[in-house]
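note to self: dont lose this again. the chain is below, predicted strucutre after it. 490 aa total, dont forget to put it in the shared folder this time
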Amino acid sequence: MPTPDHSLLLYAELSPAQIRATQRRLREGTLKRIAAGVVTSLPEEAWPALIARERIRVLAALYPKAVMGPRSAFHGGVPSDNVMYLTYSYTKRVDLPGMTVQLVAGQGPTQGDTPMMGRELYFPSMPRVLLENLTISRGKVQKSVGTADVEQRLIDTCEARGEEALNTLRDQARALAPSLGLERELTILDGLIGAVLGTRKAAMSTATGKAMMAHIPYDANRLALFEKFATQLRSVPLKQPPAVAKSERARLNFAFLESYFSNFIEGTEFDVTEARGFVLEGKPITERPKDSHDIIGVFRQAINPGWANQTLGSGESVLTQLRERHADQMKERPEVGPGEFKTLANRAGNTEFVAPRFVRGTLVEGSKLLPSVPPGTARALMAMFLVSEVHPFTDGNGRLARLVMNAELSVVNSCRIIVPTLFREEYLDCLRVLTREGNPSPFLDAMQWICQWTAAFDYEDLDKVIADMQLCNAFEKSRVQHKLLFPPKA
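---
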């Protein structure tokens, strides 16, 4: 047997001869006892760090076949407020240097529990963790975290791993609960999982859970993000250039460029001359009819006064309004369900948009913030972000969001916004920062800048404005090779 490390000697790991040698050194004073069966050569001030570092070894040696207790297991197997909870054969509280061990009488290792570091200390299966954390803690020993924390864990699990993960957990819990005597807790867990999945009603404790149980369930995290954005929009005055397309010709040219670039952002790439032919000159669409109709759909709403000047409603009316907008915008694309909210989750890169069953509620609750945001640029950006972040339809969401934004600008006779090809990545990057970090400043700066850029052109002559935008690098793609320029002042 190898020579033991004298910095930590555990009788459970030693042979009888080694134990006798250790006891002899204890009598001589070269070793010191930390606890029964736990000995060290280190000075007393080093004991808390030693116990923390060797926690699994120590607990496995002192309490063989113990199972990590509910509260500690819920937090990954670490002490909670310096207390480590273990399920063992009896109940007792033991103080070790830097850590208290709370033993709670209960069931030993069962199916699904796994040894920690190959030792006789077991980590419970996730179904067991959830069930045991729904037990009632009586007296001073708070062994379980309670319903609210379990509810939030279920919500987080569903968001991270999908609904199937919760269904699997529920099936495993049903098989396990009788052997643990946790039928009551299974009923609670079953109800919570059903509520998270939207298949049944249950009393929820967390803000997110209550949002799920609302009359129209909504995404509480998204609503919090919308509220944060609205707060910023109310408190920061934003630049608001007046409309520059005054004549019918200028409005027509502007609407064409708006639709052309809005579709380019979404990957619908046409040469501007080709797009001009089938949008403005009536040339037949012979190739890529779907992409062509996408541009025409945006153009139609950008030029039609009924759509172009339609402010976004507040409350449940927003649902009908957006469905009608989308139905018109995508009417030539029946395969994407024009006017029908999505039934499958959608995402862009690492951004997961609002789940289908929360689309209606999130739009309703989010739109209620609009009246409190100043009209013009602020409300335009709020409306755009609401639609973009919810992503309520299978396709066409980005284009719809920018149409909604520009309608809010037209209502107050402000300049609509064109997002040119070279600005695409900056526009999307700033949106990602707002979505993922909740930081609106880059997005507000970028959108004010591009609004001023849009307003710097004369839209009376389409050939000239296209040539001017080409000189300003608007049609380029690489931000490394090109910089978006303002046109020279006349």
